[in-house]
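Two proteins follow. First one:
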Amino acid sequence: MARRKQQISVSLRRALTDATLLGTVLGGDTWRTWRMLLIAAMGEQLTDSERVLFKQLTGGRVCEPAQRVEELVAVVGRRGGKSRAIAALSCYFAGLCDHSHVLVQGERALVLCIAPDVRQAHIVLNYCEAIFRSTPLLRQLIGHRTADTLSLTTGVDIEVRAASFRRLRGHTFVAVIADEAAYYFADESSANPDTEILNAVRPGLATTGGLLAMISSPYAKRGELFEAHRRHYGPEGDPRILVAQGTSRDFNPSLPQYVVDRALERDHAAASAEYLAQFRSDIETFISREQVETCVEAGVRERAPVKGTRYFSFTDPSGGSSDSMVTAVGHMDDSMLVIDAVREIRSPFDPESAVEEIAQLLSLYKIDKTTGDRYSGQWCVQSFAKRSVKYEHSEQNKSQLYVEMLPRLNAKTIRLLDHPRTTNQICLLERRTVRGGRDSIDHPPNAHDDLANAIAGLCGLAESMRSTYDSSLDWVGGPEPGKEDEAIQAGVIPPPRVDPRLGLNPLPRRRWDHGRGWH
C-alpha cells in the first residue's frame, strides 16, 4: 500500500515564525539549528545560509529533501534542547496539520511520544500543554488533559508513554517521536526493546504517511539509532530518511563551553557521547544472547528439592522502592552449576515481608545461610537472623561476580532456568573501560541487573567452594579425609561408582586418590 500524504494546513516555517502559533517556542538565534532541521524534515525549502548548516549536520548532503521525509533521526548532545523541539513538533502535527483524509469517521489520530521512563515522558507532555496555553489561538484547541494524554478539538491526541512495545499495536499514528531512543532498555521482557517498539508503531504510520522521528543523545554502537546513523548519515543515505548529528552547542549555543570542557576533563568517553554526540566506543556487549540461551533448560521454571543434595544461595537485597529483591538457589552436579530456583520480589514491597518470603524459599531447600552484598549495613544480617538464616557478605563486587559467570556461560557449565527476565538481564550487561584502564561490567542506563547479579553470585560461590577444596588436596590430589562428600558437592571430585546389585548404595570406599580414583 502506498503511503498517503498528510494535508498541511499551515507550513512549519510559518508556524515557527508566527507569534500567535509556535513563534515563541523555538524563537531566537539559539534555536536556529532546530528550526532549520525540522523545516527540512517537512520538505520545505531552506535559505542559502540554512543549507550551509544543513550540509554540516547531515554529513555532506548538498540540499534539503524535496518532500517531507518518512524518518527523521537527530543525534544530539545533552542539553541540546531536544525535549522542547520534540514538544514543538508534536504540537505542530496535532494542532496545525489536517489529518481528516487519512482517518475514518469517528476515528481519533494519535501523536505518540515515547520516552525511556514515565518522568521524562511527562516532561514532554507538560511542554506540549504549555505551548497550547501560550497563545489564545492555540488555547482554544485544548480539549482535556489526563496524566498521559492531551486531547485536542482537532481530533488528535498527544500521548506520552514510557518505553515498552506493549499496547502500541492497532493505533493510527500521524506522528511517532522516539525521545532518547538510544536508552530504551527498560523493557527487559524484550530482547531488543528499541527494535520491538519501532516494529510495533511503523504499521500504524504506514496508512497515514506519518513521520517517525528518533531524537536522542547517542550511546553505544548498537540499536536502532546507531543503525540508522550508520546506514543513512551522509550523502549516500536514503533521501527519505534524514539523519543529522550535532554537538550540544551546535543545537544550543547558549550552553557555556566551560560546562563541556569540564565534563570532558572528568570523563572524556562519557562526555564525548553526552556533549559531542559521538557514539561510545568504550562499551561493548558482555556476552551474546546465543551463548546465554544455549545454557537455558527450556520449559524448566523451577526444580524441586532433592533429598541429599547440598544447596546454596545468593541474595541481591533491595530496600523495596526501586530495585527488585532477588534470591537464587543452586547446587553442583559434578562440575555443572545447576540453578534450581530464582525468586524475584519486584518493587514496591515491604523489605521485611520480602525477607520472610525468601527465608521460606530457603527452608524448602534446607538452606540456613545466604550470601549477598553489603547493602544497608547490618539490616540484612539482622533481618535474616530473625528467621534463622545467616546472611554473609560477599567478598567480591558485582563486576568480579560477572567475571566468574562468563567462563561458565562460555563453557556451558551452568544450567539456567527458563526465566526470560533473567536471560534478558544477563544479555543486556555491558563491559566498559573505566578510569585507570579497568573493566567494569554493569547494566545499561534505565535497566536492572538484580536477577543477573543473583545468578553471578551463585557462580562466585561455586568457584570459591572449588578453590576451598582445591587448597585442601594432599600430595596425591585428594581432599582431606572426611571431606569427600563436600568435595563431591563442590564438583572437585566425581561421586563414587554405584554397584548395580546394591541399587543406590555406593561401593565401600576408603580414600580418593587423584591418580587411582576411589580405592
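Second one, unrelated to the first:
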Amino acid sequence: MLSNDPLKRVLYIDLSKRKFWVEERKELFERYIGGTGVAIKLLNEEVPENCDPLGPDNPIILTVGPLTALFPIASKTVAMFKSPHTGNLGESHCGGRSAVAIRMAGYGAIVIRGKSEIPIYLSISEGGVRFRDASTLWGMGSTFTVGRVIRENERGAGLRTIMRIGRGGENLVSYASVSTETYRHFGRLGLGAVFGSKKLKAVVVSGKRSLPVYDKREYKALYDEIYREAVGSPVMKKYHDLGTPENVLKLNEFGGLPTRNVSDVKFEGAAAISGEAFAKNYLGRRLACAHCPVGCIHIAALREPYEDEAYFYKTSMISYDYEPIYALASMLGGSDAEGFLRLMDTVEVYGIDVMSTGVILAWATEAFKRGLFSEDETRGVRFEWGNYPEYIRAVKLIIEQPNGFYRALARGVDYASSVYGGNDFAMAFGRNEMPGYHTGPGAHVGYLIGARHSHLDNAGYSVDQKVLVNELLAPEELADRLVAEESWRQILSSIVICFFARGIYTPEVVSRALRVSGLEFPPEELKQLGKGILRDKYEFKFREGFSFEDIRIPKRIYETPTRVTGWDDEYVRKALSRAERAIVT
C-alpha cells in the first residue's frame, strides 16, 4: 500500500483505563484489504474464547476500506463484535457519514476495549481521543435528542459522524442498534447492547484530509466511469425514485411477502404500504450517504395535530425502507400507513433493530392468540394483528422490561419461544430474526448458512425468483451458488461498498480500483481471498459453539407454500451439509 496512506493506522481505545494509542498494521490491510477482512482478524485477536458478549472483554471493532472516500458508494463502515443476541459472530454495516469520517480522521480501524465506570462518549479526531462525561445523556428518552445535544457541543459540523445508542442499548436489549446521522444504523445483532454494556453512549468521529492515489489520471478515469454507472443505471434509478419499498408490490405479486408471521405470502393491504403509496402520500425528502450520488434514503413526513392546540401541528420525519415495512406492516398484518410510521418512530427513538422487533411482535401476536401467555403477563397489552397502539405499548414495555415476559422479548424470538413455546412459528435463523423474504428454499438456506444469517449475506431470495421458480436446483447446487455469492460479498464488504452497487463493482473494476489506491489484487486472487475471509468467520463461529447440525429451522417455512415447489426439510438439510463442506474446505 502507499506509504502515506493512513488506512494502515489502527486506533486502540481502552475505556477502563481511559487510554488510547495507534498502531500501524500495514500487513493486515495489504493482505485482507480492509472492512470485513481486517475486522475478522482483529476480532480473533481481541476476543477470548467463550467471552461474555456483555462483558468488558468483548471489543467493538469499526473498520473501513481503501476505496472509502475515494470512489462513489464506498460508504459503509463494518462493525464486528461478539453478538449478545446470538452469542456468536456479530457483524453489522452502516452508511451515513461514518466511513468517510473515520477515513478522514486518519484511521482504517478503531478497536474499543474495556468498560467505563460512568457513562461516557468518545470524541475522536486525527489528534486522538477525548473521553467526555455522558451522565446527562444517559437515560434520555430519544436517540434524536442525544444526537442534537452532541451536535451542539462538538466541532466538525458537516464532516463528523455521531454514532449513539438509545434506551434500548442502555437497557441491554439484545437486538439494540446504534444510530448514525439519525437515519442510518448498525441495526442487526445487538451492537447497541455492547455499547450499553460498556457505558458508551456515543462515538463522535471527525476529520479532514486529502488521500493519496497511485495514478491520478487512472483514478479520475475510473472514478468517472463508476460515477456514470451509478447515476445512469436503471437499478440505481429505482433506489433513488421509490427506494427499496418498490419491492412491496413486486414481492406481494410474486407470493413472497411474509404476512402475519409468515402464515401467508400475500397481503391484502399491500397497496396501502407500498413504495408508490408512501411516495405519493408521505415522502418528505431524499437523502444520500456520504460520497454516494444515488440518494436511496427516503424520509416520510408525518403531520399530526397537538392534542390540546387547535391548528397546531408537529411534523415527524421518519425513514422507511422495504425491511421496516415488511417487519412492522405486513408481518404484523398492518395496512395503516400512519400507524406503521408511528411504530417505526417509536422503534427509532428507543434504538432497537426494526426487523427483530417486528418478527418478535408477530410471534407474540400469534402466541397470544394461541393462549401461550395471558394478558396478566403482557401487562394488559392485547396483541392483535394490525393494532398499532398496542404494538407501541409493547415496544415501550420491551424497553422497560417490567417482568419476565418482556425480559424474554428483549432477548429475541428464539429465546422467548424457548420459554413460552411456539418455536415452530418463531421465525429466527441462527437466533437472528428473519428478513423480509419467504420466496423459497434459496432465501431460507441463505439465512441459515449466512455468516450473519442475513439476506444480505448471499441473496438467496434472488435465486428463488430468478432461477428456482423455473427449475428446482439440486440442494448441493443451490448451496454452491450461495456460498460462491457470499464469498464474493466478503470482498465487497472489505473494500467497503454498499451492496446496492454490487453490479457496478465487478471483480475487474474492484481490481482496478484497488490498484489505484495502492493495492495489487488480480480478480482471481480476490475471489480466493473472499473464500478465505468467509472461512475465517466460520472458524470464529465454530470456536464460539455454532453448529450446522444443531441449528433450528422453523417449521413454518414448510407449512406456508411458496412459488418454488418441491422442497422440504430433507432438501434444506442436504443444502446445509453441502454448504458446510464448501465453506470449511
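SUMMARY FIELD: Residues 6-205 form a domain with the Aldehyde Ferredoxin Oxidoreductase;  A, domain 1 fold (CATH 3.60.9.10). The chain has three domains: 6-205, 243-422, 439-584.
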